[in-house]
Design a protein that fits this description.
Number of domains: 2
Structural class: mainly alpha
Oligomer: single chain
Order of helices and strands: HHHHHHHHH
Helix content: over 70%
Radius of gyration: 29 Å
Number of helices: 9
Distance between the termini: 72 Å
Largest sheet: none
């Protein structure tokens, strides 16, 4: 009878060494991939930081001429956020592959921090856009009502040009049009869209405000994907109508897709 115990031990040792060698090679590949992801992440975050600083400078000016530029920067930030989050997700997966829980936790913290910084910048920029457009609408409305908006003219000069009672009446009418409406901000909950849209249509779309004012209120009423659907559009009547169609299309398409996947609620 042949003794095979020695051969079995040698085979086991050989397999063990081969497994260790393979594990070591896999770890090297993972670490090499992590190194590449670090470089990509650093480049994207640096780009995002530059754009954020540019947006912040433009927001301080609150100039109507900068609105389009701010909107373009917002679109760039959304794209950089999307790409960077993808890089960080892949990086986290690499840590899971090699069993590095501390590394995975660090990536999770970085994800939360970066997402918060970019979202905060975008929200502030959108607020500035809305305020700037409303201020522009105010000047346009005053001009259309025959009210002087010259900053350097004195109260006496303005009084000599216009009857004070007429000024009061026109300003009162405009303030009633532009006073803040108690509209909720649509947060993406598709089940509440019908009620929200009916309210917006009644209070804003159906009133007599100028298209640029309605567009400003429309921007105020949305966040996230719905707001992205109207980025880049101007404030004319056709563009306002296009914005409404874009939002309705985005929301209803999403609702239909979810219903198709999961069935009725």
């Amino acid at each position: 009878m042949t003794d095979t115990s020695g051969e079995n031990i040698e085979q086991t040792q050989s397999l063990s060494e081969g497994s260790k060698s393979a594990d070591g090679e896999n770890r090297k590949q993972v670490e090499s991939k992590i190194f590449e992801l670090k470089k990509c992440k650093r480049a994207k975050k640096t780009a995002a930081t530059k754009v954020r600083h540019h947006v912040e400078k433009l927001c301080v000016l609150k100039n109507m001429a900068n609105v389009e530029e701010i909107e373009k920067d917002i679109e760039v930030l959304w794209e950089l956020l999307h790409v960077t989050m993808g890089i960080l997700d892949e990086w986290s997966l690499m840590y899971i592959t090699i069993g590095d829980q501390d590394g995975k936790k660090a990536i999770s913290v970085e994800v939360d921090s970066f997402e918060s910084e970019v979202n905060e910048c975008i929200c502030k920029a959108q607020t500035v856009i809305t305020e700037t457009m409303l201020a522009k609408a105010s000047q346009s409305e005053q001009a259309s009502q025959g009210v002087s908006v010259e900053v350097n003219s004195s109260p006496t000069q303005r009084a000599s040009e216009l009857n004070s009672s007429s000024i009061s009446e026109n300003n009162g009418q405009f303030q009633s049009r532009l006073k803040p409406l108690k509209l909720p901000v649509f947060d993406g909950n598709k089940t509440k869209f019908e009620d929200f849209w009916a309210l917006f249509t009644s209070l804003v779309d159906g009133n007599s405000e100028a298209p640029n004012v309605k567009m400003a209120r429309l921007r105020q009423s949305f966040t996230g994907v719905a707001l992205q659907a109207i980025q880049g559009l101007g404030v004319s009547q056709p563009e306002y109508e296009e914005a409404k169609k874009n939002i309705e299309g985005e929301i209803w398409w999403t609702m239909k897709t979810v219903a198709g996947l999961y069935g009725p609620a």
